[in-house]
Amino acid sequence: MSAESMPAPxxxxxxxxxxxxxxxxxxxxxxxxxIHAFQMLCPGCVAHGTPQAEKAHRLFEKxxxxxxxxxxxxxxxxxxxxxxLEAFIHEYRLTMxxxxxxxxxxxxxxxxxxxxxxxxxxxxxxxGRDGNVLHHGxxxxxxxxxxxxxxxxxxxxx
Amino acid sequence: MSAESMPAPxxxxxxxxxxxxxxxxxxxxxxxxxIHAFQMLCPGCVAHGTPQAEKAHRLFEKxxxxxxxxxxxxxxxxxxxxxxLEAFIHEYRLTMxxxxxxxxxxxxxxxxxxxxxxxxxxxxxxxGRDGNVLHHGxxxxxxxxxxxxxxxxxxxxx
Amino acid sequence: MSAESMPAPxxxxxxxxxxxxxxxxxxxxxxxxxIHAFQMLCPGCVAHGTPQAEKAHRLFEKxxxxxxxxxxxxxxxxxxxxxxLEAFIHEYRLTMxxxxxxxxxxxxxxxxxxxxxxxxxxxxxxxGRDGNVLHHGxxxxxxxxxxxxxxxxxxxxx
Amino acid sequence: MSAESMPAPxxxxxxxxxxxxxxxxxxxxxxxxxIHAFQMLCPGCVAHGTPQAEKAHRLFEKxxxxxxxxxxxxxxxxxxxxxxLEAFIHEYRLTMxxxxxxxxxxxxxxxxxxxxxxxxxxxxxxxGRDGNVLHHGxxxxxxxxxxxxxxxxxxxxx
Lengths: 158, 158, 158, 158
What we know:
The structure is a homotetramer.
Chain A (H helix, E strand, L loop, with lengths): L12 E5 L7 H4 L4 E6 L4 H17 L6 E6 L10 H10 L6 E4 L9 H5 L7 E5 L5 E6 L4 H13 L3
Parallel strand pairs in A: 2-3, 3-4
Antiparallel strand pairs in A: 1-4, 2-5, 5-6
């Protein structure tokens, strides 16, 4: 069994934006989920990754795909507070659901980031309808390849 | 029957680059085909459409997809000769197969461009495994949407 | 007398980054000064204006020009604190001197922003060797025009 | 005497576009001249250098600066003919005067290119009011630095 097919752990979110109800991977089982992990002060996220996730959110709006932005703060904690994130979401006109990764009790790495063993931001994780991780990428991703991966996950039988 | 599902007419090519043998849609039946129609002096092609088609050619290299660049010269015929196209292909390091659309006998519009009723350049046409036109777009296309469409065509049963 | 030649008011800064000593326009009299007013959560600043000011800082490093970044927070005050700005400066690797515009006592507009009657962010103000305002622009500025204006200010006799 | 201050040799042009009368450096003595040497099939010219020269032409339109595009064809001669260049100028909406560098009798390098010892395309040469070369650059140039250099040449006494 390859690393790609391991079951995704659950996300741990302390606060949500752009959604009326909290989201869980368990509740989304049967649908593909794209998690975009970012930090609002990460230049590569702001310039590329976050606009790309927002673009996917809008392009696949009428499909089963669920895009989730995850604010995985692992540095500059005093700067990237939920209040600051809210202003960031407003200024950059983000409409996808965005969750604050639970800071946890142990060190600077938040809970979901640790569970998925993310290496930094931006990280892009695609989860299939069956709850398994289909792709886990760190750094800049090509739009064309991402579009293809998402379609593949959408077409796959639940 | 919608316009999207009409059978693609055959391409008419007077000269090929980057391929040992001439390509035909009939010979490619069973595989998805992406046709990128361009002119080497069309700014929107040079800046966006042609690099995008080349990117698709490389990204889906190990799949069934066949990308075809088609030089559909409908203006400035004296400038965009096959000799000029060859230099263009060399300078822009294009590796996808590229055909010169047959100039034909009747007016400035080349044969394949007329058969497909293309509106100008760049034009992006995606043909399914069954030989039907899945998408016909004029102007700039999003990488993410193109990647998704190609994957959809690849997954569809022949 | 045109608006362009009015004497620049003094800047009011509550905290400095990237400089050992506080800067004042009075102390810089005799040298041209470029003030780049920005907010760390202003998308047009992050994508264009702030990198442009940093570029000017580096390009004209060996000349008399003094570039000053001015954090003119007039919205989202709870998000754009000095602590957050410090993280922003670190992440975006800014090396020009940056001052926090004094928040003042009256309403959301900080002191220097009000004194210069700035319309928003990004704002670019070029001050001549004689202390007069040579240019006051709001929004995106062309690199080529900015380079020309700076050189003109540098060549002018004190 | 540094290489920068050598007198510019005369340009040799076999055909002009976008100007009613032929231009010569002798005739332009007393004014700064920016020569942008390019080839219409040089990707770095099309994407960056040529739009930059056109931008300078428009930005400094009301000054003494004369911008000259020079088509210095040293490869793919059969592709980059004057007819092809005319179509290129039309499609890219270039309005600066553009001359075809005289092909000469000896080898592939055209006359002006050889006289200036240009290394390739794009090349940017700035000539002062006194007819001396102020700057000779090969490859991509920064807009901000170019704007500053042009202004410096404009302000210099004849």
